[in-house]
Design a protein that fits this description.
The chain starts with 13 loop residues before the first strand and ends in a 5-residue tail after the last strand. The chain is built from 5 helices and 9 strands; from the N terminus they run ββαβαβαβαβββαβ. By secondary structure, the protein is an alpha/beta fold. The strands form 3 sheets. A 5-stranded mixed sheet has the order 5-4-3-7-8.
């Protein structure tokens, strides 16, 4: 397991998406001012709690040059609900409005040093990690959010300001590593 600390370059990747195309981080960095890499899966209750908020963040910021990229690295042998086919079903039934891709080998997840689902890495256009951690401070109740960490970091980044809170401890399910 390696790690991707704040201010370091995110590991590049080429991974298959549920849209049957290959997704290459470098291509996203060429096209967007900011990229949010969100490690997620189909079965995690925390991902399900946050999914509508993630879709809203994508909708609110995409016109400013932002995209989320969902990556599922969970072992689909132990957790068949997280298989590639089930990712397609999950994305369609939940109307996911951002790319959802599969890290079958778990190499990308290992390189990022991800521990939880959901855990987000906000990258600037150069591929540097500017924020890492939780989406906000209240998984259970969107109305009770006190600090929208990802929204705040994204707003600051897109305005050319330093990100005031660059790291929070992600809360969620553990990544399901292969045995």
């Amino acid at each position: 397991m390696t790690d991707t600390p704040i201010g370091s370059y995110a590991p590049d990747f080429e991974l298959p998406g549920i849209d049957d195309t290959v997704h290459h981080l470098a291509r996203y960095l060429e096209s967007f001012r900011a990229v949010g890499v969100i490690f997620m899966c189909n079965h995690c209750p925390y991902v399900r709690l946050y999914l509508d908020r993630l879709k809203q963040i994508q909708a609110d910021f995409q016109a400013q040059g932002f995209t989320l990229i969902g990556i599922n690295a969970n072992d689909a042998i132990q957790y068949p609900e997280d298989s590639f086919e089930n990712m397609k079903t999950f994305a369609a039934s939940n109307q996911v409005n951002f790319p959802y891709i599969r890290d079958v080998t778990q190499d990308v997840a290992h390189c990022f040093g991800v521990q939880k689902t959901p855990e987000v890495f906000l990258l600037d256009t150069n591929g540097l990690v500017r924020y890492r951690g939780q989406i906000d401070d209240n998984a259970n109740d969107p109305e009770a959010v006190g600090v929208p960490y990802l929204r705040n970091a994204l707003t600051q980044l897109l305005q050319g300001e330093p990100v005031s809170v660059a790291f929070t401890e992600a809360i969620g399910c553990s990544v399901k590593w292969r045995q």
